[in-house]
Amino acid sequence: QVQLVESGGGLVQAGGSLRLTCAASGPIARLNLMGWYRQAPGKQRELVADITPGGSTNYADSVKGRFTISRDDAKNTVLLQMMSLKPEDTGVFYCYARYTRILGRTGDSWGQGTQVTVSS
What we know:
Blueprint: E1 3-7, E2 10-13, E3 18-25, E4 28-39, E5 46-51, E6 57-59, E7 67-72, E8 77-82, E9 91-101, E10 106-110, E11 114-119
Parallel strand pairs: 2-11
Antiparallel strand pairs: 1-3, 3-8, 4-5, 4-9, 5-6, 7-8, 9-10, 9-11
């Protein structure tokens, strides 16, 4: 079973920064697309950013220029550096990954989520 574990959330004042880390573990041969999603209270989960194995990135318009996604395939991790945080960034951040298992089958997993709260 492939598991994703997020860390790095917390409470920060507007204008502050946080860095989220997601570590993947289990029978992984290759990590494919990895990303971060956010679910604000009362809203649907939405894409924040994702990154391909080749390093191509995609960001939600609301975070462009403030957030940076990166990955370290040697450590099976994906990072989200968040700067100039705004109260509207508040929500539960979920890590997502598509992967190829050691035996060759593909799959995807979600992390359990980490809370980010930005106070005004």
